[in-house]
Amino acid sequence: MIDIFRLSFADFWSKKIMLLSVLPFLLSVLVFGFSAYFASVNLTEFIIDTLSGWGYEYFDLNKYSFFQAITEGVLFKWTFYSIIYVLVAYFVLVASVFSSLIIVGFLTPMVVKEINLRHYNIDIENPVNFIFVTKSMCAILIKFIFIFIVCLPFLFLPFVNFIIISVPFFYLYYKFLLIDVGSNILNEIKFKIAYLENGGFLFMLSCLAFYAVCLIPILGLFFQLFFVIFLTHLLVRRYVLKI
Fold it and tell me: Which residues cross the membrane (predicted)?
């Protein structure tokens, strides 16, 4: 694993890979950053305006006019805006991870081909069938929805709700990486074996570590292609070179 990490790190800092790494990072930050800003501003204004007029619409104005005074206060607005921005920031973080993963999906064939030419020169005969990949991804999405629904009731449990809600998203992240990388470096037979074995224990453990890094702002977006490079080396050594 240490040798793979060193090799992947050297590959990642090459000029070509670095240029490709900037693309998903910038697109994700720009799209979700602007979306989150406008959504949060409009949402907070709507909620505050609704709360301010609530007492006037349903109750006696003299009795409940203090409610408007509170909602229009600087302290209330500052606190309320802070909470909204924290929630929106978390959404942006998770959404950026998966948007970056989608963008990286289009770059993966280029990256895997580059790694193959640099280190292995594998002639991939009988490549993975596109229909099989599509069916597998649809099945994963269905399982993801099912796992997500099962995990929803646990959101009300303190301290464990964050871990529980991460389970379906990690499943989706891990499975999509397996399909994305494996289908570009393995032939059909070896890919199906890898898919049945879930890539092996080291692959799953690596994806878990990468998913944790993805939850750290900036790092997860920038190092997505490093994850692809690392997993490419891992799959080649396990299912092609068998070392």
Answer: 17-39, 83-107, 155-174, 218-236
